[in-house]
Amino acid sequence: MTTEESFAVLKAVKAEKNPYDFTPEEWRTFSDEQKDARYELQHQWEKEHDARFKKAVRGIVPKVGLPGTILYWSDYRAVTVTRIISDKKIAVRHNETKCKDYYAGDYEILPELEGGEDIFTKRKNGQWIMEGQSIKDGCLLVLTYQRHYIDPHY
Q1: Are 15 and 51 in contact (CB under 8 A)?
Q2: Are 60 and 131 in contact, with CB atoms under 8 Å apart?
Q3: Which residue, among 39, 93, 40, 86, has the nearest Cα to 66 in the 3D structure?
Q4: 144's torsion region: left (phi>0), alpha (psi -120 to 50) or beta?
Q5: Residues of the chain where predicted confidence (pLDDT) is lower than 70
Q6: CA-CA-CA-CA torsion for 26, 28, 30, 36, nearest 10 degrees?
Q7: Which residue pairs, CB below 8 angstroms and at least 24 apart, start in 32-41?
Q8: Other CB atoms closer than 10 Å to residue 141's CB: what's the count?
Q9: Beta-bridge mates of residue 14
Q10: CA distance 43 to 57
Q11: What is the pLDDT of residues 37-80, one digit of tens each?
């Protein structure tokens, strides 16, 4: 699967609508038992949809230039994929940022890259974790979007 195909799968899952949502007319005509049954169907569909969404996100195939975010405990760091080492190993570099308001967490993410590379490996659960760290409490890489935030309380 290519990067574009993996994003197409993600887009298709995002576009799915819950077929069990109420219309105002249905709401007025349903009995309490019918409403409860519909709520159960809605809840079941949402659980299944969440599982499909997570699978699609974890199935994203990285490519050079793809944006990402490293999740530290309470901080986020904007990165860009710089190298594909193997199917299960990639290298990223941090994007330069411009602080607009430190206490509001407002940063401008610039396209220029800084610093050395961080290596991430794809684990059994489909998550990208920093090389050498455990799945349970390691630094996580999320592909597809960039966010930069430094928690001012620490």
Answers
A1: no
A2: no
A3: 93
A4: left
A5: none
A6: 90
A7: none
A8: 23
A9: none
A10: 21
A11: 889 999 999 999 999 998 998 888 899 999 999 999 889 999 99
